[in-house]
Amino acid sequence: MPGSHNTKRRKVGARTYRNFSNEQLEKAIDEVKSGKLSIRNASEKFSIPKSTIARKVKQKNMNDPGHPTALTQKDENIIVEKIIQAGKWGFPFSRLDIQRIVKAHLDKSGFKN
């Protein structure tokens, strides 16, 4: 049946997204940092935008996006261990139970929001 297959066409002038691998990016960054290539030459050699290489070399905007988490990784791991242990003992938790466990842990640790 003609026209039954689903093909997507990009609009003319539409932005192209990342068309390089992490390995290529790492190689480009390594060569720029070691002084073998300039940012411009690495951009041409690996077909990666100059701005991307420059940003990675200068390590700008390397933080995780979004708001910082309220709990530390250590606190999260402690809470997860408590929940898993209770599950092994045969106590399934509802969402409210988990919220109470988290609140009890935070109250005990003196967490201030």
UniProtKB/TrEMBL annotation:
<dbReference type="Pfam" id="PF05225">
    <property type="entry name" value="HTH_psq"/>
</dbReference>
<feature type="DNA-binding region" description="H-T-H motif">
    <location>
        <begin position="39"/>
        <end position="59"/>
    </location>
</feature>
<dbReference type="InterPro" id="IPR007889">
    <property type="entry name" value="HTH_Psq"/>
</dbReference>
<dbReference type="GO" id="GO:0003677">
    <property type="term" value="F:DNA binding"/>
</dbReference>
<dbReference type="InterPro" id="IPR009057">
    <property type="entry name" value="Homeodomain-like_sf"/>
</dbReference>
<keyword id="KW-0238">DNA-binding</keyword>
<keyword id="KW-0539">Nucleus</keyword>
<feature type="domain" description="HTH psq-type">
    <location>
        <begin position="11"/>
        <end position="63"/>
    </location>
</feature>
<dbReference type="GO" id="GO:0005634">
    <property type="term" value="C:nucleus"/>
</dbReference>
<protein>
    <recommendedName>
        <fullName>HTH psq-type domain-containing protein</fullName>
    </recommendedName>
</protein>
